[in-house]
Write a structure and sequence with these properties.
This protein has 247 residues and is of the alpha+beta class. The protein folds into two domains: 107 residues, no CATH class; 130 residues, no CATH class. It is 27% helix and 26% strand. The chain is built from two helices and 19 strands. The strands form seven sheets. Strands 7, 8, 11, 15, 16 and 17 form a six-stranded antiparallel sheet that branches. The protein has a three-stranded antiparallel sheet with strand order 12-13-14, with no helix packed on it. It has a two-stranded antiparallel sheet with strand order 1-4. α1 runs antiparallel to α2. The chain starts with a helix and ends with a helix.
Length: 247
């Protein structure tokens, strides 16, 4: 009985630590543009066996993300861009897979490729990387995702490419280690997604809410550890009683 009590309390403590790690990760990304708050959820699984009907274990359920849009603020950088309402940018990961993000902090590398802050290539609506011709000036991303530039020797802006903007169902995406999202198959471009040029979307993590969650999760962990200590004390007391009954 005491063993079941201990294991039940330990599963609670373990997953309280998991919740705390998730909240800490959210706090660390308060200033990350386009970051989507990680959500941790758990489900109760009844313990089978004699005298265990009233006990349950806690196990991880499928983690998710909060898709509430973050606040948009102007930066003045013509290669910064934020998405209005729903939608995502398409990027090419290091292994060539197509991934998606809400962060529109882009810049040009030494070869003129449009990349994000992690060095991933931004894709156009044909699924190809975007490269700006050498010597071009006034590179700007328009509200419809078109990238324009003034080529050497020209006076007018020329369309170079159009960003691939998608609008997936959030539950079909899986979060990657770098914070981007992947789908089981490449998504089609959505021409209805609109952008806010020279702006960035902030993280949707609330610092105040995250602090409250962290305090509650710490208390939950402490409560489960105390239950383990109570079980240990009960075991010692039972052992003492058994010794007295033999004398």
């Amino acid at each position: 009985m005491i063993d079941r009590f201990v294991f039940t309390a330990m599963t609670g403590a373990k997953h309280a630590m998991g919740q705390l790690a998730t909240t800490s990760h959210n706090m660390a990304n308060l200033q990350t543009p386009g970051f989507r708050e990680m959500l941790s959820s758990f489900r109760a699984v009844p313990v089978t066996g004699g005298s265990s009907d009233s006990r349950v274990f806690v196990v991880d359920s499928t983690p998710g993300a909060d898709w509430t849009p973050g606040a948009i603020s102007a930066t003045g950088n013509p290669l910064d861009v934020a998405i209005q309402d729903q939608g995502m940018f398409a990027l090419q990961s290091k292994d060539g897979q197509e991934v998606y993000t809400r962060s529109g902090r882009f810049h040009l590398d030494a070869q003129g490729f449009l990349i994000n802050s992690a060095g991933l290539h931004v894709l156009d609506d044909q699924g190809q990387t975007i490269q700006i011709p050498d010597g071009s000036k006034d590179v700007v991303i328009q509200p419809n995702g078109t990238v324009t530039a003034t080529f050497p020797g020209q006076m007018l802006d020329t369309p170079v490419a159009r960003l691939k903007l998608v609008n997936p169902m959030p539950h079909t995406l899986q979060r990657q280690e770098d914070g981007s999202f992947a789908s089981s198959q490449d998504l089609a471009a959505d021409e209805d997604v609109r952008l806010v040029p020279a702006s960035l979307e902030s993280s949707n993590v609330s610092a105040a809410q995250a602090m409250v969650q962290m305090i509650a999760q710490n208390r939950l962990f402490d409560l489960n550890i105390r239950l383990v200590q109570v079980a240990e004390q009960n075991s010692k007391t039972a052992g003492t009683l058994m010794s007295l009954s033999r004398t």
